[in-house]
Amino acid sequence: MISVQSAPFDLGDIANRFAAAQSGAGALVTFSGVVRGDAGLIGLEIEHYPAMTLPAIEDMVGAARARFGLLDAWVIHRYGRLAVGEVIMMVAASAPHRKDAFAGAEFLMDYLKSRAPLWKKEHRTDGTAWVDAKDSDEESLCRWD
Amino acid sequence: MITVVYFAWLRERIGAGREQIETQAETVAQLVAELSAIDPYHAAAFADLRSVRVAVDQVLTDFDAPLAAAKEVAFFPPMTGG
């Protein structure tokens, strides 16, 4: 399942549904990203490119499944306004063994950060600012080359 | 006729999220040169291409990419998902 949505979702519910949908997996990894409570931050506004986001994420999931032998992978990513503490996104990956499940989830996270057409804008007590891409995120991506 | 879409600070700087452009440009770079000449807002958006990414028909590509039969070209900053 891949979903790009503005509505909040229940982490536990999705994790349980993911687990129930698996057969033959020995390892399930879930990761979720949360709006960090940096000083002065009210929340994030996430913009995306609707015509491209889903196909781009589908490609990443296909690549992760092929590369790490994942049995399944789910991605949920929110857009719109999110307050500090809200869950932005989650990745779930299943594999026969944990090493591939962890690596597959990490691969997906690196690609979602730097190759999915989503942009974060910070709403702060002193104004707004688009979040700059970090060199370290691009470097994380390079290790999969 | 090609549809050009903008996101994040490029959209804000240009003042529109979408526009229809009549163009003979053969590559993304040629289209960027035409767009930059429209007004100072477009020029400002494309002033530093190191911080601009491009997708042609929803697929990430680079500025040398050909535009043959392209329907939609998107310009946006480096992505910050996750």
Task: Describe what is shown at a glance.
Chain A is of the alpha+beta class and 145 residues long. Chain A has four helices and eight strands. The termini of chain B are far apart.
Overall mean confidence score, pLDDT of chain B: 97
Main β sheet profile of chain B: 5 strands, mixed
Poorly predicted runs of chain B: none
The succession of helices and strands of chain B, N to C, reads EHEHHEEE
CATH topology of chain B: Ubiquitin-like (UB roll)
Mean pLDDT across every amino acid position of chain A: 97
> Helical stretch count of chain A?
4
Helix content of chain A: 25-40%
| Form type of chain B | globular
CATH superfamily of chain A: Molybdopterin biosynthesis MoaE subunit
Strand order, main sheet of chain A: write it out.
Answer: 1-4-6-2
Enter the CATH topology name of chain A: Aldehyde Oxidoreductase, domain 3
Helix count from the secondary structure assignment of chain B: 3
Verbal overview:
The complex is a heterodimer of chains A (about 140) and B (about 80). Chain A is α+β, with helices and mostly antiparallel strands and about 140 residues long. Chain A has one domain: Aldehyde Oxidoreductase, domain 3 (Alpha-Beta Complex), CATH 3.90.1170.40. Helices cover about 40% and strands about 35% of the residues of chain A. Chain A is built from 4 helices and 8 strands. In chain A, the strands form 2 sheets. Chain A has a 4-stranded mixed beta sheet, with helices on both faces. In chain A, strands 5-3-7-8 form a 4-stranded antiparallel beta sheet. The longest helix of chain A has 19 residues. Chain A is globular, with a radius of gyration of 15 Å. Chain A starts with a strand and ends with a helix. Chain B has about 80 residues and is of the alpha+beta class. Chain B has one domain: Roll (Ubiquitin-like (UB roll)), CATH 3.10.20. Chain B is built from 3 helices and 5 strands; from the N terminus they run E-H-E-H-H-E-E-E. Chain B has a 5-stranded mixed beta sheet. Classes of the chains: A alpha+beta (about 140), B alpha+beta (about 80).
